[in-house]
């Protein structure tokens, strides 16, 4: 286990993608120590049940005591640690309140930074009410959140910081965060997929995590909850999100000084007996992510290359690692005068050499030679993400689209010269 880092549209644990498979936990009625969490033996048993579910992250809404972080470490769980403050009040109108908020961020990060990689991220806020955002103005609210993020980074530079937004305030500029979190409760699959696709575009080059979703079983029933969460979880990871957090682990919930008994969003009941949704979510959490596609037409990856000897090898190496079951690779050497063709032949891919006529002509040659139902173009100086082809084809097949594209991220340079190019 290493500290998570944000890289492009994904979170990484070392060199591997890290998908947050999460559940929210608490707050609870104060225990015998006055902490808003269960007794240590109850928490340890809950963490063991979370591991059985396949979860790797716990979302908390109030900072945990040290013993609880240590129990999470033992269970191999990370924490997305929320820092509470009065999100529902006009906080920017009060210098005292702003100072108290800064103190809360400072105190929490100072007290928990010792736990390093167990802290998946700090959440510096949750759903500032849309009327409060309008009252203060979105720029002022964004600037204050950026200040809180900077304050946390000064204390723990290696930590990740996020903020859990919601649809009513989606226009907030949160580009200063390490990743974007959204709480989304939509119960129609078409609406859910469409809105998450919209958010993927809104978040630009940052990872997106669904930080809350769920269903109340008192009103909707156990079966409906299980069906909803199963397709929501699959859809989120198919669309390219970096995490999915269910609200909540258990029906036991205490907030505002009262026990909440008229809602039941848990994957487990108050006695921790699992509902149907526990196994439904566990099935998706236990799969390799993103989940296998139900439709996977053959694809042809066409690489048009002109004097690309310096970069083609890495490009083809990345294509070999694609997470897709059926594809071919075609390199069209557009009249290169260097060793482009030799590198392609050594890589064992189909290579077509033509006179130098430019990129469009080279790609058309690749199209004519392709045997796949879908043709994907990549430049010879690019490296493909492992799931690049997966997400392109998932988008095309789901939306019955003629074509699809996505963001390009510059690869890490290996030298000062490469960084300057």
Number of strand segments: 17
Structural class determined from secondary elements: alpha/beta
**Could you name the CATH homologous superfamily of the largest domain?**
Glycosidases
CATH topology of the largest domain: TIM Barrel
Helical percent range? 25-40%
CATH architecture of the largest domain: Alpha-Beta Barrel
Instruction: State the end-to-end distance.
Output: 34 Å
What is the number of domains? 2
How many helices does DSSP assign?
Answer: 14
Proportion of strand residues: 15-25%
Overall mean pLDDT stands at: 95
Which outline best applies?
Answer: elongated
Radius of gyration: 24 Å
- Please give the oligomerization state of what you see: single chain
CATH class call of the largest domain: Alpha Beta
How would you characterize this protein structure?
With 421 residues, the chain is of the alpha/beta class. The protein has two domains: 4-285, TIM Barrel (Alpha-Beta Barrel), CATH 3.20.20; 299-420, Alpha-Beta Complex (Spore Coat Polysaccharide Biosynthesis Protein SpsA, Chain A), CATH 3.90.550.10. Helices cover 37% and strands 19% of the residues. The chain has helices at 40-53, 66-75, 95-112, 130-136, 138-155, 189-202, 217-220, 222-238, 276-285, 312-320, 340-346, 359-369, 388-399, 416-420; strands spanning 4-7, 10-13, 16-17, 20-25, 57-60, 78-82, 119-126, 161-165, 180-183, 208-212, 243-246, 254-255, 258-259, 299-305, 327-334, 350-354, 374-379. Strands 4-5-6-7-8-9-10-11 form an eight-stranded parallel barrel, surrounded by four helices. A hairpin with a 2-residue loop joins strand 12 and strand 13 (258-259). Helix 1 runs parallel beside helix 2 (66-75), helix 3 runs parallel beside helix 5 (138-155) and helix 6 (189-202) runs parallel beside helix 8. It starts with a strand and ends with a helix.
